[in-house]
Amino acid sequence: MSQKERRLGVSESNLVTRTLKLQSGDADALRLAIADIDVLFGLQRANYDTGKGKLKMA
Fold first, then answer.
1. Average pLDDT in the 22-51 region?
2. Per-residue pLDDT for 7 more than 90?
């Protein structure tokens, strides 16, 4: 079995995906918030779909 590269604090056995629907009138504030979320310890990734208004985190 191959080992995937993971960020610090993330393990395959504890990996959970969450999807949040966001509403924001300020695109710059939303972009800054997502950038802050993406660097949190224990998160593999944070992606925002502008068309659907959904933030996906794992």
1. 87
2. no
In a domain, residue 10? The reply is: no
* Number of residues in the chain: 58
- Those residues whose C-beta lies under 8 Å from the C-beta of residue 15, and which sit 6 or more positions away, are 44, 58
One-letter identity of residue 32:
L
Averaged confidence pLDDT in the chain = 84
Query: Quick count: other Cβ atoms within 10 Å of Cβ 45?
Result: 11
Q: What is the DSSP letter of 8?
A: T
Q: Tell me the pTM.
A: 0.70
Report d(CA 8, CA 24) in Å as an integer.
30
Range of 35's domain? Answer: 17-57
Query: How far is 3 from 28, CA to CA, in rounded Å?
Result: 36
